[in-house]
Amino acid sequence: MKQRKHDEQKKSISTADGICDQSERGMSEKFDRETVDFILGSKIFIDFSYGDFEHLCENITEFPEKRHRKGETILSEGDMIGYIALILSGEVEVSRLLANGEFFLINKLGRRNTIGIDTAYKVGHTSDYFYKAVTDVDFFRIPLSDILEPGQIEENLRNRLVTNIAIILTQENLRINTHLNILSEKGLRKRIYLYLSDKKRTSGSDSFTIPYNREEMASFLCVNRSALSKELAKMKDDGILEYYRNRFRLLK
Fold first, then answer.
1. Phi-psi category of residue 78: left, alpha or beta, with phi > 0 → left and psi -120 to 50 → alpha
2. Cα separations (Å) of 186 from 60, 66, 208?
């Protein structure tokens, strides 16, 4: 009886139309074609076909969807992360608690970003950060054990997931190193300029949008918000940059 109930709750995907339907706790959950296309467009599912995705959903050991409400703590520092979660919608704030009791912003994650990649090969799979839902957030989750241990997922698919995780980890390490290089600068103007220069480089344009408001930007740069606003105004007066809210243009 339990097995029958579990089977009824499992997701079945039509490879032809890309639709995946599943019921959990009496509620019907759906992945329409647009959502499946979105998932397959993420870095972790590079080169996955609809058939690959069908097989994955049929064999992972846990229900793949999870929602967190706005303001909810998703993970605390030290919590074990037993999955890799792809953000389908919403925003997640990643921060760390400093010795003075203040939170230091590490990153803000949006659609197609992932949680759990950085702990995949860490002993204990424990989180180094706090993860908080800035808005309502929907995830597509895969248990880490299904990825790291052979036998649950077809080996070809598992190996491809492992390879994609390694690529994402390399990119994440580069991002962390860039952040550390920025914070190693003592001067506020230099921190601002290095951060905005990196955003200019990654966007490929002199004009770009950053994901942070002023309070978040100050936290990310580990500086006082008032001091940040004053320095930005000075840099604008000096002809170094132009800005409106979170839209910037580097002039020099």
1. left
2. 48, 41, 25
Read off the tokens for 114: 């992932």
For the entire predicted model, the pTM comes to: 0.81
Which residue shows structure tokens 């200019």?
Answer: 200
List of E strands, the chain: 12-14, 19-24, 27-31, 65-68, 73-75, 83-89, 92-97, 103-109, 114-115, 130-133, 137-143, 207-209, 241-244, 247-250
Give the other-Cβ count within 10 Å of 110's Cβ. Answer: 14
pLDDT digit string, tens, across residues 127-175: 999 999 999 999 999 999 999 999 999 999 999 999 999 999 999 999 9
Task: Kindly state the tokens that stand for 91.
Answer: 């925003």
Helices H / strands E in the chain, number of each: 8, 14
The b/e string for 132-166 (b: 16+ C-beta within 10 A; e otherwise) is bbeeebbbbbbbbebbbeeebbeeebbebbeebbe
The token pair that represents 205 in the structure block? 């344009």
